[in-house]
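Hi W.,

Here's what went into the run:
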Amino acid sequence: MDDETRLIYFRFFNEIGILSQLSRAAMEARLPDGLMLPHFSVLNHLTRVRDGQTPNTLARAFQVPKTTMTHTLTGLVKHGLVEMRPNPKDGRSKRVWLTEPGRRFRVEAIRALDPNFQRLAAAIPPDQVAALLPALAEIRAFLDADRDRDDDAED
Amino acid sequence: MDDETRLIYFRFFNEIGILSQLSRAAMEARLPDGLMLPHFSVLNHLTRVRDGQTPNTLARAFQVPKTTMTHTLTGLVKHGLVEMRPNPKDGRSKRVWLTEPGRRFRVEAIRALDPNFQRLAAAIPPDQVAALLPALAEIRAFLDADRDRDDDAED
DNA sequence: TCCACTTAGTGCGATTTCGTATTATATAGT
DNA sequence: ACTATATAATACGAAATCGCACTAAGTGGA
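Here's what came out:
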């Protein structure tokens, strides 16, 4: 792989990392005490995909250890934003369900970003951002499918 | 702000977050024991911008508390990848300098990603990624400049 | 100069994240 | 049915991250 090509990919992920850092900070500044971005992200995932998933599925989806997901879910339960019920099909596992406050919390958290989005919109119109989405989704889908191979290709 | 516009921006940052998560995991899988992504990121920042910066400047650049940067720098010093020297212009502060092993480590860490980049290149050619860079950089620059206003506009 | 105020770095305790080991349940082979 | 193996969740301890408070040093005004 030539230097120029490597630099293109590296700079891309560099930009991604910085953008993520900046948006994470902006988002967490809007969240109430005791709730972090992972809490919101789980609510968002349960809404976008579907609720009733197991903690293990969520841990794999977020690329975090199971113990971390247990901790995050404990916090969400404590705040009444999700419910854990036993999985009738598997006595070992549980299933995670959104509560009404959980759904409401997610919607309000997104709406709370409007001031940020409005300032951004003044500099970068929605069309320009929308134009990036297909390519980003494509790269994301590839990495998502590719991640398992990382282990196999270690040596 | 209408729902459609909000959704565009939200989905954009959603993709950014997932991409960051996936690439972070892939990157950390390549790093040796005892060194995390923040360690690499600081080395990269010192290389790209310039070394000799103060810990406080780095903490602000990375949007982390000063104590976190102290911790990260302590680890880098322990591994001999950076040096801390007193700041002759300000007795309170220090300056962080890259060492030769630090520079080498960064280059090797980037090169270690080649297998990942090569697999990605087979699905998403460099041109397509390069085409995204200007827009991403523009959005990143805006957020970077905008982040201070978050506090002011809280209420 | 002196004194109040600000700033850079760090010590300390709390929370989050993570790796390992453990328990309970499911699955497969006999 | 029984045993060995695999899997889901968690308990536990280590490391990372963070907020608060403290010390040392710089800044500005009387």
